[in-house]
């Protein structure tokens, strides 16, 4: 950290700028100056995939403030944009560039979801110079410092971003071991990072790249197919990220092996309705309905409520609401909790039986 | 009888404000409430970039005044300018920014720097304590005797329903002291000294407030009375005095604006019985009868944090205050149709009215004959709306 940074973060400066804090002054002079908060300026927006009639994918290069502590390949970041200069909306995206250090430029790569507030804005409307708000990098879906001799990456669609960051980091670290990289896309036209992957495939260096398009006749993922590609794959350290059906297939193929690590972009679907029972009530709006087993956020939305949300994955705490009674299950960990008057993240909490939330 | 949160007026006689509330039929009150709800929905639908830009510009101006003020203390001849800039900074911070942001008026922006849960203002009152006593108690129970502790702040007698006691002879003196130390009055508000003195509450019961209060006072004192003066070296005493003056100017200004909001003649108070289980329309109606506006220029409104539109603020406490002037025109028109008095006037008139009330209520109600007429004047809750009601 530079001397300037140390001074700006000192207790003396905090006392002088109390109660607002030094960042509230620095930002008035230059939005790229910060002592605690992390922000970034968009440097460029480059289309990766542009198939007519399909949502485009773009890579966004960000120049963060010097407060960005860097990231480990595979980590994600909360990114907030002020759409039309007013409402700040925050979503989560994975860093797609290799490991970064303090203040380093990095990229995110995202698909403009058809009704996505933030993703559409970033891909279609944001221009170089636009400021965005960031968290520090988060997440433990990362490469270990000592990379095993052979690693396997499996991804689908935009789930390529964390494993791409890992692959790029391995290349930069001049990793000598073997890497098997399997990616599923709708078609070659939908392939994100197509040129770069092609280059890597042709140059060899111990990286086997397999780009597959099951909708065009390529084999779908199965234990037999994996076994042929990587004999003994269940013992090979594997990182997998992609849509729910792909992750479910991978999990089935690995059969509980602890060599497998998965990352979700979306909370997995909780149990089917028959097993859960009871009613869900939202006390402030007076709405209630039979418990469908989905997350409380989705059940609230189904009743026409519009609770605030950010990541829909239990990361950002935007959706935190007070549960006055009932039992909920965390859809990520399976943990259950029955405490009354408990603050819960409704995006990853599914009710088990009767449940009342103050919404 | 001292009016406090616990010792409510026990006799169930109606007071003038109650009579006013009964002038509209329940149906009229409901229709009236629906019209106000409609305004609210419309404004919420329009919130956007303009409001965001406005509040950010005010913040920018406030930060600029603050930095300028602190810097000008290095130039001794510019001392008055430095004090002026710092006073403006503190007034903007406390009123147009702090008060309004802490009401949640800008929460929809999703900006942590302008969020009601996170904003902390530049005075000695911790924001969380103020939000409870102000946003909750005062805005919910506005002008309900025995509930709203902002009626006289537990020190002053501001209403004939507060029983006269000899110590109220000090009313004008207490008001002056409260004005000069207003930030301290606001900070100590939650401790409820008057109830501790009356033996209704113990000092130990306020313990949960102490740590926050002490921390905030320490931080404020540290920067205004030690660090910034010390940074100006030999000019320490001048800077110290300048910072104290800026705090004083803000105190006087805020006190005056706020007292004009609820205490000019014609503003009503209400009994707890009248307001039990009230409807939304009744709540709106009470807010309207219990508040008063001040007329003035655009700059004046900004410097009051738009509390010059106290009526609109009490109807819609969580709408961005910059919207109050445009809302006011509609509210006035609605009031005219329902025959409800809309209490407004220039600062001088409203202040004079408040000052008269402070002096008038220093004395017992049956004023002895020798008193000058203006002190024996009108009851505060006297109905001012005499026009017949629209059907
Ligand atoms: C750890 C992590 C890493 C991620 N990394 C990436 C990445 O690298 N690249 C990438 O492209 N994506 C990534 N995502 C996914 C991304 O965060 C989501 O797709 C996010 O929703 C995108 O924001 P948005 O603006 O497109 O959409 P949102 O506005 O959030 O809408 C997205 C979808 O949410 C649903 N939705 C929104 N509002 C409602 C409503 N009111 N009722 C019902 N459903 C609603 C809809 O299905 C909609 O299409 C990641 C997610 C996580 C959790
Ligand atoms: S929406 Fe982010 S934690 Fe629920």
TrEMBL record, chain A:
A Pfam family hit: NAD_binding_1
GO molecular function list: 2 iron, 2 sulfur cluster binding; metal ion binding; oxidoreductase activity
CDD domains, sorted: fer2, FNR_iron_sulfur_binding_2
Protein name listed in UniProt: Ferredoxin-NADP reductase
Alphabetical list of InterPro entries matching this protein: 2Fe-2S_ferredoxin-like_sf, 2Fe-2S_ferredoxin-type, Beta-grasp_dom_sf, Cbr1-like_FAD-bd_dom, FAD-bd_FR_type, FNR_nucleotide-bd, MRET, OxRdtase_FAD/NAD-bd
Compositionally biased tracts (Polar residues): 282-291
Keywords: 2Fe-2S, FAD, Flavoprotein, Iron, Iron-sulfur, Metal-binding, Oxidoreductase
Chain ranges of the FAD-binding FR-type domain: 35-144
The keyword Ribonucleoprotein belongs to this UniProt entry's keyword annotation: no
Region annotation Disordered: where it falls in the sequence: 271-291
Cofactor(s) annotated in UniProt: FAD
UniProtKB/TrEMBL annotation, chain B:
Membrane spanning stretches: none
Biological process per Gene Ontology, one example term: lipid metabolic process
Superkingdom field: Bacteria
One Pfam family of this chain: FA_desaturase
Limits of the Fatty acid desaturase domain: 78-344
Signal peptide: none
A single cellular component GO annotation: membrane
GO MF entries: oxidoreductase activity, acting on paired donors, with oxidation of a pair of donors resulting in the reduction of molecular oxygen to two molecules of water
Protein name, UniProt field: Fatty acid desaturase
């Amino acid at each position: 950290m530079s001397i300037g940074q140390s001074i700006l973060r000192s207790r003396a400066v905090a006392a002088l700028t109390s109660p607002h804090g030094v960042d509230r002054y620095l930002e008035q002079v230059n939005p790229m100056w910060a002592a605690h908060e992390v922000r970034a300026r968009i440097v460029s927006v480059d289309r990766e995939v542009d198939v007519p009639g399909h949502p485009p994918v773009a890579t966004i290069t960000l120049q963060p403030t010097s407060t960005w502590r860097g990231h480990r390949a595979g980590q994600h970041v909360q990114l907030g944009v002020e759409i039309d200069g007013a409402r700040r909306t925050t979503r989560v995206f994975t860093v797609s560039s290799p490991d970064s250090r303090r203040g380093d430029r990095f990229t995110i790569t995202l698909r403009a979801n058809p009704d996505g507030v933030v993703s559409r804005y970033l891909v279609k409307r944001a221009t170089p110079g636009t400021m965005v708000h960031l968290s520090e990098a988060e997440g433990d879906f990362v490469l270990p410092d000592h990379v095993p001799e052979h690693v396997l990456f499996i991804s689908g669609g935009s789930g390529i971003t964390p494993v791409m960051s890992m692959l790029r980091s391995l290349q930069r670290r001049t990793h000598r071991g073997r890497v098997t990289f399997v990616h599923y896309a709708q078609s070659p036209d939908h392939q994100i990072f197509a040129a770069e992957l092609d280059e890597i495939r042709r140059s060899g260096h111990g990286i086997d790249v397999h780009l597959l398009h099951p909708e065009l006749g390529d084999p779908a993922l199965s234990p037999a197919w994996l076994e042929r590609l990587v004999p003994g794959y269940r013992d090979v350290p594997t990182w997998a990220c992609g849509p729910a059906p792909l992750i479910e297939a991978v999990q089935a193929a690995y059969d509980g092996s602890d060599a497998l690590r998965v990352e979700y972009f979306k909370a997995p679907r909780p149990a089917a309705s028959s097993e859960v029972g009871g009613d869900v009530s939202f006390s402030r709006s007076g709405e209630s309905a039979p418990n469908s087993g989905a997350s409380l956020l989705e059940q609230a939305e189904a009743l026409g409520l519009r609770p605030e949300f950010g990541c829909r994955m239990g990361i950002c705490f935007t959706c935190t609401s007070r549960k006055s009674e009932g039992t909920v299950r965390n859809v990520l960990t399976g943990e259950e909790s029955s405490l009354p008057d408990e603050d819960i993240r409704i995006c990853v909490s599914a009710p088990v039986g009767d449940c009342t939330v103050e919404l | 009888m001292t009016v406090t949160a616990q010792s409510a007026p026990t006799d169930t006689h109606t007071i003038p404000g109650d009579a006013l509330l009964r002038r509209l039929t329940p149906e009229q009150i409901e229709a009236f409430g629906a019209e106000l709800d409609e305004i609210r929905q419309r404004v919420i639908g329009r919130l956007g970039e303009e409001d965001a830009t406005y509040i950010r510009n005010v913040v920018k101006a406030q930060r600029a005044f603050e930095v300028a003020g602190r810097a000008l203390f290095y130039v001794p001849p510019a001392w008055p300018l430095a004090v002026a800039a710092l006073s403006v900074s503190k007034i903007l911070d406390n009123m147009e920014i702090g008060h309004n942001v802490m009401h949640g008026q800008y929460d929809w922006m999703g900006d942590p720097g302008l969020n009601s849960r996170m904003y902390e203002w530049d005075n000695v009152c911790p924001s969380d304590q103020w939000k409870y006593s102000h946003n909750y108690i005062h805005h919910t129970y506005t002008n309900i005797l025995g509930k709203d502790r902002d009626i006289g702040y537990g020190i002053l007698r501001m209403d004939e329903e507060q029983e006269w006691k000899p110590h109220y002879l000090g009313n004008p003196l207490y008001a002056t002291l409260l004005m000069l130390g207003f930030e301290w009055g606001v900070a100590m508000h939650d401790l409820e000294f008057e109830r501790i003195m009356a033996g209704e509450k113990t000092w130990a019961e306020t313990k949960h407030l102490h740590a926050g209060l002490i921390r905030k006072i320490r931080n404020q004192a540290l920067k205004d009375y030690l660090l910034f003066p010390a940074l100006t070296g030999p000019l320490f005493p001048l800077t110290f005095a300048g910072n104290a003056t800026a705090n004083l100017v803000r105190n006087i200004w805020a006190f005056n604006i706020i007292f004009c909001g609820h205490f000019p003649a014609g503003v009503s108070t209400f009994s707890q019985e009248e307001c039990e289980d009230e409807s939304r329309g009744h709540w709106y109606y009470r807010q309207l009868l219990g508040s008063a506006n001040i007329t003035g220029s655009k700059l004046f409104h900004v410097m009051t944090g738009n509390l010059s539109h106290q009526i609109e603020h009490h109807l819609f406490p969580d709408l961005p205050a910059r919207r109050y002037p445009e809302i006011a025109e509609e509210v006035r028109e609605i009031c005219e149709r329902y025959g409800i008095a809309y209490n407004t006037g220039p600062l001088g008139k409203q202040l004079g009215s408040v000052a008269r009330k402070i002096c008038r209520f220093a004395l017992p109600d049956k004023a002895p004959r020798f008193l000058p007429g203006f002190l024996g004047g009108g009851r505060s809750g006297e109905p001012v709306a005499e026009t017949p009601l629209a059907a």
